[in-house]
Amino acid sequence: MLENTPYYHAVGKEIEVFNHAYKNKIPFLLKGPTGTGKSRFVEFMAHQLDKKIITISCHEETSSTDLIGRFIIKGAETVWLDGPLTTAVKEGAIIYLDEIAEARPDVIVAIHSLTDHRRELFIDKLGETVKAHDDFMLVASFNPGYQRGFKELKPSTRQRFIAVSFEYPETKIEIEILVKETNVDPDVAKKLVAIGNKIRNLTELGLTETVSTRLLVDAAKIIHSGLPKRLSVHVAIVEPLTDDLQTVEALKDLCDLMI
Asked: Is 247 exposed, middle or buried (0-12, 13-18, 19+ CB in 10 A)?
């Protein structure tokens, strides 16, 4: 493993699949709930391939102009400034569009010509078409279950990618991740993962999001730095999940019994 490579524990054949996607210049889509290691995986693969990575966290205001570029006024003249997507296309970097379904529809339209045999980007404001560098790769992620399907990717877009589903790791691997990431005591890591699994199975609570590995890592970090275990679980796991007071109290009581 390269020096300073982000820690990532493979749970399937995702590393192998990503390498083949990169070699064959096929865009890569990561599907799965928040906090399951999608972003960490992309960072890990960029390190493995020794490639620059440019990450864009998409939201409802993210437009194609934000990605492609814009004219700006510099002193007495107007100059063109490449956006992150254009930079990646020209330099041969990996562009990672995190939560792509959150972006405006014009973003999807803008990347279509990069996700097929053309591998080119049309810059409307310059009237130019830029051919992608040989090493360029487009990677995107989205959460299929977010807000019960409110934001979905169209099949015509999904079918332009090789796709891999990310889920929460199995218990043994998740404990290992917590210990490796935070140096927390293995017994504490085991209890945190048990809490995570218990809450994930409480579907009757109607939580929009459930306990991610990321939340468990946060709890483990602050326990390791000396915050009391139950308080750590309350602030790092329970409170971020919901604002409903009754649900918060019920979850706190449940967690207190488990740690």
From this structure: middle
